[in-house]
Design a protein that fits this description.
single chain, mainly beta, 12-stranded antiparallel beta sheet, 2 helices
Amino acid sequence: MRKYVALIMAVCALVAITAVGVAGAAGGETPVTVKVGELELTANGGFSPTTLSKTKQTPIELKASGEVKLADGGHPPAAREVIIEGDKNAEVHVKGIPTCKSGQLQATTTTAAMAACKSALIGEGTTTAQVAFAESKPISVPSKLLLFNGGEKGGKITWYVHAYFSNPISGAIVSTVTITKHPNGRFGTLTVTKIPQITGGAGSITAFNLKIKKSVNGINPISAKCADGKLKVHVAAKFEDGTKAETEIVRACTGK
């Protein structure tokens, strides 16, 4: 059961960092849906402000949401790995933001996690996962999401995603997310998350929403510039059944 919850949190962590690819779905534009066979992945969200400097990084508040489903309404396969390349015109900043250690979040409720690491909180939201055990109907499991800063060392930024499930699955899980610089043409950051294998693939994320704060103790976790009127992110996801979904999402911005 604990492995199932770990799967949920690993995927949620990925979702948070997909947003860091900057504005995978900008405000006022329609959601983006990728279809591979029966599998459908939909991403949406927004950022503010939408008018950014052409040359200087501008702090932004970022919102992201998404849904994973099968076209026939069945239980979707579990994600196993996601690789994300973020636009080179976006940056992640953690220097000066208080940090939290994984050990401070383990085996804690949402309330206890906030008490231990509130000053390091950089984002929050909710998620819903679906569990489909053999010979039983799928169960939807909701949870609060908390995103904490773990700091930066050796050029690698660490974030922690915490969730506490109380019903019908009980327990807390902490997932670690890492972000590194990745000069590659249009892209400048790279996030790779491997999701633990679950026997039978019983648990799958079906929906999420997340907001990353514009300012934390006077520091701006996410910023971007609009050098050429657009921002881009590339996402590749691999699933338990061998399915691979891959796309590049481009959104317009206004430079000044």
